[in-house]
Specification:
Length: about 120
């Protein structure tokens, strides 16, 4: 990513260093790996990074709606949908990692439409 974009996110230099632009996605290296079990039939999986698509689609935004009305639940659902990771894995996301991931995703979210008279 360009340093201008990263500088505008309000992240520290160390946090910006954990972000890599892969063209159509962003890779964020996690400080605290996530270990989860995708299903009862599978073994544990460990994630050391999240690859987040840059293009938000309806399915990503629907995941937020399905998470309920809580802001944290909606944020975790969005990150999980963008990374292709199940919701139960996102429950294990460290708060420090969540802060970086949400800062990276925020510029790609649709802006709220203005209502009322201008």
């Amino acid at each position: 990513m360009t340093s201008d974009f990263l500088a505008g996110l309000g992240l520290s230099e160390a946090e910006r260093g954990r972000i890599q632009d892969l063209g159509d996605s962003l890779r964020v290296t996690l400080l605290a790996p996530i270990t989860y079990r995708h299903s009862k039939l599978e073994g544990e999986r460990t994630l050391t990074e999240l690859s987040l698509v840059k293009t938000l689609k309806g399915k990503h935004l629907k995941a937020m709606d399905q998470a309920g009305s809580g802001g944290i639940a909606q944020s975790l659902a969005l990150v999980g949908a963008l990374a292709g990771v199940p919701a139960q894995a996102m429950d294990e996301l460290d708060a420090r990692d969540m802060e970086v991931v949400l800062a990276v995703v925020e510029p790609f979210l649709p802006k709220p439409r203005r209502t009322g008279m201008s």
